[in-house]
Design brief:
The complex is a heterodimer. By secondary structure, chain A is α/β, with parallel strands linked by helices. In chain A, 35% of the residues lie in helices and 23% in strands. The chains are: A alpha/beta, B mainly alpha. The complex binds adenosine-5'-triphosphate and magnesium ion.
Chain lengths: 262, 310
């Protein structure tokens, strides 16, 4: 008996206008692992995340989270199935502070009307704010808690975006280019942080262009090109796969990244 | 206090309550241009109940507010499907429908206007205003307030994190209509006479301006906006007397000098909006104000305690 995958994508498709952006795509994400979703620019990686999180409806096919079919579950309800995500273009609420942005991540756990009307900022101590502050401390951002998030540096915003998603206490976390724009030190910290998430039992799917990062972090790689899966396996297997090399051919940076990595 | 000053404070108090009626939907990213319509509902409903049911006046104004809120809740479901400029137009139309309907209801005087028997003064109205400010200030410090800001900035994102965006927008719209109705009921009980044309579109637009000028992200915004709109025209009223040497120079063909105060006022609003499109009371400004008040309080306390020392 094989374990139920954290995410099962079964023959899905999506077109925008006349362009098939996702075409008969199937793959599974094993529970508790770190899976990479890679592919050239425009391959459809972000679109896969958008389809899984329900931002767009599917043309056909089905998506299951932890064995539960969520194909027809609305975008606002999927988080209840233990799904959270980050965004390629950071989507923080610029008019809220760093701390308040993180409080938004707890929304799903806050409960109905009572949670909605529970004072967050009246008494000195508050379990939600204390938790959010602790989460900020964990990633070394305690100093930024009360700053308007729009004024903060990019690397800091990136971390806040990630922490916010974590505070939804997801079982499956989709990260869209978490290392993009980070310096080497920040990238290393991120790696350690993501390994910590796995230890806490969170399944990760990471979209990333930095192959070095993928090789160190992920045990399972899915390669997309033109909206279809062209390869799947360990980083080693994928690296030596003919179709993958072909897909990246002519893209010198990517070629370089590949040869450096191998 | 002279009765002129008391009257101004009453108008300010009522304006603040109504301003929150526009503030709440704006906080959720929605423009309600039908505020005057909800005021009219609150005003007429409270007046009718006050004149006929023999209930305590304080109860009747909340019945009026509740009536406005209830109607808002009923229309919210279809009307909030529209967005942006279409929502503004839909709410504008709603306000017009309310005014037109009242014009035809003989029960409340139709075009003749309607008298209200009970009278409220500053002593009743000010506490209601303070309670309203307290309620909104509290809501701003809950997830409700947090989520409204999130919705107004990025509805999709808020929704992905499990915020019930539509429900919250309906709640903000309804609660806003409740406050507009409350303000309308206070208006009816202060002036003791209401006519359909008291609640026209111009009023709705002014109330939106209160909030946009004062600031949409702070509980202080509507207060500051309402204060500016209540006091500035009055200050100008005296100006043309004080600076009569200047205003007397206004050539005849420009008409009455005193009439120009509204033009000057409008020009000032435009300048304000250009200089501070985010409104006067931003979050930062509110924090600075809070720090300043805290500092003053500390200084005062310190001065007093040190003065008491032998
Ligand atoms: N909402 C949309 N409307 C129209 N076309 C879209 C939309 N979203 C994505 N696309 C198109 O779908 C294709 C795949 O886009 P997607 O963002 O998923 O690629 P990606 O693999 O994430 O690329 P990148 O590495 O650059 O982030 C692109 O050609 C893009 O232009
Ligand atoms: Mg992308």
């Amino acid at each position: 008996m094989s374990a139920v995958p954290a995410l099962k994508i079964d023959n899905i498709g999506k077109h925008f206008g006349g362009v098939k952006v996702i075409d008969q795509l199937s793959f599974s994400v094993p529970l508790g692992a770190r899976t990479a979703l890679i592919g050239p620019n425009g391959a459809g990686k972000t679109t896969v995340f958008n389809l899984v999180s329900g931002v767009y409806p599917l043309d056909y096919g089905s998506i299951a989270l932890n064995g539960a079919d969520v194909t027809h579950v609305s975008q606002g309800e999927r988080i209840k199935f233990g799904l959270a995500r980050s965004f390629q273009n950071i989507r923080l609420i610029a008019h809220l502070t760093a701390l308040e942005n993180i409080l938004l991540g707890q929304q799903i756990r806050a409960g109905g009307l009572r949670g909605l009307l529970y004072p967050l900022n009246v008494f000195r101590r508050n379990k939600w704010r204390d938790e959010a502050r602790a989460a900020l401390c964990d990633v070394g951002l305690e100093a930024y808690g009360d700053d308007m998030v729009g004024d903060l540096p990019y690397g800091v915003q990136k971390r806040i975006d990630l922490v916010r998603a974590e505070l939804a206490r997801p079982k499956l976390l989709l990260l869209d280019e978490p290392a993009a724009g980070l310096n080497p030190t920040e990238t290393e910290e991120l790696q350690a942080h993501l390994e910590g998430l796995t230890e806490r039992g969170i399944t990760l799917v990471v979209v990333e262009h930095d192959m070095q990062f993928i090789n160190v972090l992920c045990e399972h790689v899915v390669v997309l090109n033109f909206g279809s899966k062209i390869a799947e396996g360990t980083p080693e297997e994928v690296r030596n796969h003919g179709a993958v090399r072909e897909a990246y051919l002519g893209r010198e940076e990517d070629e370089e990244a590949f040869s450096h990595a191998s | 206090m002279t009765s002129y000053q008391t009257g101004l404070l009453v108008i300010l108090s009522i304006n603040i309550v109504i301003a929150y009626g526009a503030y709440l939907p704006i906080a959720a990213g929605q423009m309600n241009l039908g505020i005057a319509g909800f005021m009219a509902l609150g005003a007429y409903a409270s007046a009718y109940v006050a004149n006929n049911a023999g209930l305590p006046p304080i109860v009747t104004i909340f019945i009026g507010a509740g009536f406005a809120g209830l109607l808002a809740l009923i229309v919210a479901v279809p009307i909030l499907r529209t967005r942006g400029i279409y929502l503004a137009l839909a709410t504008f139309a709603l306000g017009q429908i309310v005014a037109a309907a009242i014009l035809n209801v003989e029960l409340v005087g139709a075009a003749e206007g309607y008298s209200v028997l009970d009278h409220f003064g500053l002593a009743t109205i000010a506490p209601i205003t303070i309670a309203t400010i307290a309620v909104v200030a509290y809501l701003n410090r809950t997830r409700f307030g947090l989520n409204l800001t999130a919705i107004s900035q990025d509805e999709l994102l808020a929704n992905l994190f499990g915020v019930r965006t539509r429900r919250l927008q309906i709640a903000a719209f309804t609660l806003g209509a409740f406050f507009a109705g409350l303000g309308g009921a206070l208006h009816a009980h202060y002036y003791n006479y209401i006519r359909p044309q008291d609640f026209n579109i111009l009023l709705s637009i002014y109330i939106i301006l209160f909030v946009l000028l004062g600031g949409t992200r702070s509980v202080l915004g509507p207060i500051v906006g309402a204060a500016i709109f209540t006091f500035l025209p009055e200050i100008f009223r005296d100006l043309d007397k004080k600076f009569s040497a200047f205003f007397d120079q206004v050539p005849d063909w420009l008409g009455q000098a005193s009439a120009w105060r509204f033009a000057i006022f409008a020009a000032l609003i435009i300048v304000f909006m250009m200089l501070r499109p985010q409104g006067i009371m931003t979050r930062g400004a509110t924090r600075a104000a809070a720090r300043w008040v805290a500092w003053c309080v500390r200084r005062l306390g310190f001065a007093r305690s040190s003065g008491a020392r032998p």
